[in-house]
């Protein structure tokens, strides 16, 4: 090879098209493993003679760790390792087709070429990713439509609210924008695993199982100065309220810009959304999953205990909790360690809830193993199983005496309406039956017993376990809260407490009622209202008691999660207590987006956003935040003048779309009375 550095043509456009990497905006070649790519370079005479290629990655490349490959020109693609096949030659340049193995380590590679015994000459660098389109890859996904959604789609819908009232909001994953790929590569290089042993860590990067677990630890800030710092206090000074983010890009960029200091603040959907971005970027098919009435079983006994005082206040006692919803991830790959039936969707959870192997990481847990109660299989099966299956025990606790009495237990409370976004559509799909057999069926109870047995819980004497007679005692009355009217921030909250006497003699009932504002984790923040009543119910009688909580009563107290827990603890004379509770999520008022005219690539189009103030007071400090991959660069922030009662604001701004196809515009509106009103609109961009 001549002394001059060979100049390399990486055929960026053609290779990207073949490798499904066209959405990256990079000057560097980005390809997927197990598939050939073509390069042309000059400065060689008679190239077919003894050219040797060297591909290496990581800090200390070696053949033993599969981070170094040397290969010469052959006539066919190698089944096992790297190979180079001659495409064409001219007087001073040569085109080569290079193939990597299906199980190659992913990351940034340095490629060089050597002629004979001369010094190798660098051809440059390229990035190698997982390949869900290739049948030999651990992440192979047979459906092309699913590859499009779970690897290439930059927009997602995350479901939230509660099981009686599911809502969804848009999220911009943005995995192909700007330098997100570089940030994802640096996340891997900042993990505890890499810091402790970089050579071994890099050599494991062929395995989606390994990377999924490492990245579930790195997306939260615990242990390793990872990407996002969690905060469930309801107070978010010094950072951004978790519900104000609309995409992962801003979070990942902030992490990099600050010199890799954790970004403040996140809650479960933020961790899940950022992990989705990172894994899709690297080529592992990934989606977000929302579990409603999600158990956090801290002590691993597949049971969550909730405590209430005599007034009906939900007490912060014990480490167990039930969240209105919790968001985690599923990623698609094979489980060679467990066997073929456990391949497919794997649960990963980056929210720091419990330690696993000494650090805050969770998964991958095979979804099939969870459904079958195989809680002993790697990784963290017990925790995930409990999130969707734990039994609930409700106790009355007297803090003066330390005595607790079981009010009732429920085995059908946890793990409802498990949801994810549909493939190719902005709809919700229910995947509960992929996590468990039908609630209340004999099969579901058998699986629960099987899981308890595997954990050694079935014979152990448990002093807190209720005695049989406590459980068998049937309540004399039943109660429920009914919603009467709309559930909207800014409006009064109207409920009905419905009490029914189940017996054939009259019953006197004393009822203590409370309403608290909570976080979505059901953590109490402020008491909004309390009341009590005494009632005598005739035999088999049903009575309704209207409850009204006025907007001014809750307006100061409510959190940005817009959740209220209402409880009524009913003391029946000469009978057992009955607990009636309901978690209510209020809706924000609506916000409207209109695209005025046709959206065309590289042409300005005007968008109008309208908001009507629904309350009879002025709202101020109004800010509109807009983002959307391929519609605008970064985030647009617009300040809006104060709005009087019932006044409508109309804000116009311009977009210049950069790519054709269905794109999503995300809008977040906040003011002093309403936080983070979110909506999204699909914009069909034409050429």
TrEMBL record:
GO molecular function: metal ion binding; protein-glutamine gamma-glutamyltransferase activity
Reactions the enzyme catalyzes: L-glutaminyl-[protein] + L-lysyl-[protein] = [protein]-L-lysyl-N(6)-5-L-glutamyl-[protein] + NH4(+)
Pfam families per record: Transglut_C, Transglut_core, Transglut_N
EC number of the protein: 2.3.2.13
InterPro entries reported in the protein's UniProt record: Ig-like_fold (IPR013783), Ig_E-set (IPR014756), Papain-like_cys_pep_sf (IPR038765), Transglutaminase (IPR050779), Transglutaminase-like (IPR002931), Transglutaminase-like_sf (IPR036985), Transglutaminase_animal (IPR023608), Transglutaminase_AS (IPR013808)
Keywords carried by this UniProt record: Acyltransferase, Calcium, Metal-binding, Transferase
Cofactor requirements of the protein: Ca(2+)
Record text on cofactor binding: Binds 1 Ca(2+) ion per subunit.
Signal peptide: none
Similarity comment: family membership: Belongs to the transglutaminase superfamily. Transglutaminase family.
Protein name: protein-glutamine gamma-glutamyltransferase
Native source organism of the sequence: Cettia cetti
Lineage, uppermost ranks: Eukaryota, Metazoa, Chordata, Craniata, Vertebrata
Gene from which the chain derives: Tgm3
């Amino acid at each position: 090879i001549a002394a001059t550095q060979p100049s390399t043509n990486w055929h960026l456009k053609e290779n990207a098209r073949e490798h499904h990497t066209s959405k990256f905006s990079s000057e560097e070649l980005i390809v997927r493993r197990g598939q050939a790519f073509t390069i042309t370079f000059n400065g060689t005479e008679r190239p077919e003679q003894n050219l040797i290629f060297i591909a290496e990655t990581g800090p200390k490349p070696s053949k033993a760790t599969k981070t170094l490959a040397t290969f010469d020109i052959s006539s066919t693609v190698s089944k096992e390792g790297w190979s180079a096949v001659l495409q064409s030659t001219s007087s001073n340049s040569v085109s080569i087709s290079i193939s990597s193995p299906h199980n190659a380590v992913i990351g940034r590679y340095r490629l060089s070429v050597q002629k004979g015994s001369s010094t190798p000459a660098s051809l440059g660098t390229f990035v190698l990713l997982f390949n869900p389109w290739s049948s030999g890859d651990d992440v192979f996904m047979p459906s092309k439509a699913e590859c499009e959604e779970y690897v290439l789609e930059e927009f997602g819908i995350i479901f939230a609210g509660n099981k009686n009232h599911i809502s969804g909001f848009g999220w911009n994953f943005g995995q192909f924008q700007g330098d997100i790929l570089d940030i994802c590569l640096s996340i891997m290089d900042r993990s505890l695993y890499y810091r402790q042993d970089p050579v071994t860590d890099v050599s494991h990067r062929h395995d989606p199982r390994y990377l999924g677990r490492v990245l579930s630890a790195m997306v939260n800030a615990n242990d390793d100065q990872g990407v996002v710092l969690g905060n469930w206090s309801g107070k978010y000074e010094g950072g951004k309220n978790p519900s104000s983010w609309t995409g992962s890009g801003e979070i990942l960029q902030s992490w990099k810009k600050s010199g890799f200091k954790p970004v403040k603040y996140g809650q479960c959907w933020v961790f899940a959304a950022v992990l989705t971005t990172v894994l899709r970027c690297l080529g592992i098919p990934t989606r977000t999953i929302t579990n409603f009435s999600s158990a956090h079983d801290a002590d691993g006994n597949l049971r969550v205990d909730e405590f209430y005082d005599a007034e009906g206040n939900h007490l912060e006692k014990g480490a167990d909790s039930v969240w209105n919803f919790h968001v985690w991830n599923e990623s698609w790959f094979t489980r060679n360690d467990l066997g073929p039936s456990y391949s497919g969707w794997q649960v990963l959870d980056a929210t720091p809830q419990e330690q696993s192997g000494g650090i805050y990481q969770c998964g991958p847990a095979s979804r099939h193993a969870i459904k079958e109660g195989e809680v002993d299989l790697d990784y963290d099966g017990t925790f995930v199983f409990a999130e969707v299956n734990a039994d609930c025990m409700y106790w009355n606790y007297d803090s003066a005496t330390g005595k607790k009495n079981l009010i009732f237990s429920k085995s059908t409370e946890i793990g409802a309406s498990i949801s994810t976004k549909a493939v190719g559509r902005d709809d919700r799909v229910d995947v509960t039956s992929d996590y468990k057999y039908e609630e209340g069926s004999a099969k579901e109870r058998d699986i629960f017993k099987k899981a308890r047995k595997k954990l050694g819980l079935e014979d152990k004497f448990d002093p807190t376990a209720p005695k049989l007679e406590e459980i068998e005692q049937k309540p004399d009355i039943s109660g429920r809260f009914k919603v009467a009217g709309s559930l909207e921030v800014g409006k009064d909250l109207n409920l009905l407490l419905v009490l029914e006497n189940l017996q054939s003699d009259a019953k006197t009932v004393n009822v203590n009622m409370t309403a608290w504002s909570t976080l979505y984790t059901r953590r109490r923040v402020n008491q909004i209202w309390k009341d009590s009543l005494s009632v005598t119910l005739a035999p088999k009688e049903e009575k309704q008691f209207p409850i009204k909580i006025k907007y001014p009563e809750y307006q100061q107290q409510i959190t940005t999660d817009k959740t209220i827990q209402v409880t009524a603890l009913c003391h029946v004379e000469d009978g057992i207590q009955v607990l009636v509770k309901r978690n209510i999520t209020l809706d924000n008022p609506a916000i409207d987006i209109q695209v005025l005219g046709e959206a065309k690539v590289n042409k300005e189009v005007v968008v109008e956003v309208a908001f009507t103030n629904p309350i009879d007071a002025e709202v101020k400090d109004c800010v509109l935040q807009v983002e959307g991959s391929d519609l605008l660069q970064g985030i647009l922030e617009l300040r809006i003048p104060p709005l009087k009662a019932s006044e409508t604001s109309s804000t116009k701004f311009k977009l210049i779309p950069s790519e054709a196809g269905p794109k999503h515009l995300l809008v977040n509106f906040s003011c002093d009375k309403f936080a983070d009103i979110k909506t999204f609109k699909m914009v069909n961009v034409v050429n």
